[in-house]
Specification:
Keywords: Oxidoreductase. This protein is an alpha/beta fold and 334 residues long. It has two domains: 120 residues, NAD(P)-binding Rossmann-like Domain (Rossmann fold); 177 residues, Dihydrodipicolinate Reductase, domain 2. The protein has nine helices and 15 strands. α2 links the parallel β2 and β3.
Amino acid sequence: MNSDRKMRWGILGSASIAVRSVIPGLQQSELNVVTAIASRDEEKAKQTADQLGIDQAYGSYEALLADDSIDAVYIPLPNHLHREWTIRAAEAGKHILCEKPLALNAKEAEEMVQACADAKVQLAEALMYRHHPRYDQIKEIIASGEIGTVRGIHSTFSFNNSGSAGNVRFKREWGGGALYDIGCYSISAARLILGQEPTAATVIGMFSPEHDHVDMMASGLLEFDGQVGVTFDSSMWAAFRNTLEVLGSDGRIEVPSAYISNPDAGSNFYVTSGGDRREVVVPQVNHYSLQGDDMARAVLHGEALRFAPDDAVANMKVLEACLRSAEERTRITL
């Protein structure tokens, strides 16, 4: 295959995450080009295409999927539409990057993975943070023994958009709520860092009648083997935080901006060990670009995805357990 070839992307929808982050990331990457965007509102598709320098605009998702020149699609649609459009894209022969969480539940996620396997197309979940090289650095520091044995992890991700009327995150039947929107980051990061799956989940949620009874805040405990506890809180109705701490027997790692990485937020993190605290300087890279290039290498060069779609199913199982725990006010064994 031509080594200069770039993967050609179509975007299903003009969601904010697509316009602000994913499309610019793909456009700045090495191996990708965005050639088309679709919206159910054709005028909106044209406006977005003009704004971002995209050649083709479609007035329906079906029309974009019928375009044989497109190799892959990015799906930033509301959560309840992920399954349908992933399967339809797979049947159209498109590789798929689907926004997190992959589905509404693990059963749906498994169906999506199977559909993509049957169609022989790649499927990846858009959890961009884990493509940033600092997470490899964090894992290397832990493996080196510098902070001793990991005793616990604490992760936070919160913001306040409670006054955003009509937000899709506030629709219960659409898979709204803080756990699915941002709790997925904390759960994924814990699984990534520890390299294992949790054995139980206990979560307390704040379900808001003003917001269709979705969990506007969720605080949880995940139990891992080795008596390691991971605590986290996720909120769409609290002050902004975005942090990760790995606590070891002999030190700790602090990541002040754990899931958002840009020149303004900063990407560096800190290691405390032996009484000294040092700053680890991290390359300023676009993790959305790295996410796109990982997919492109899999499609164009036959390399394995860094994160197989089965990982998304595993994360979905934990998310389901957390939501069930919050709703039933009980500890859920996984």
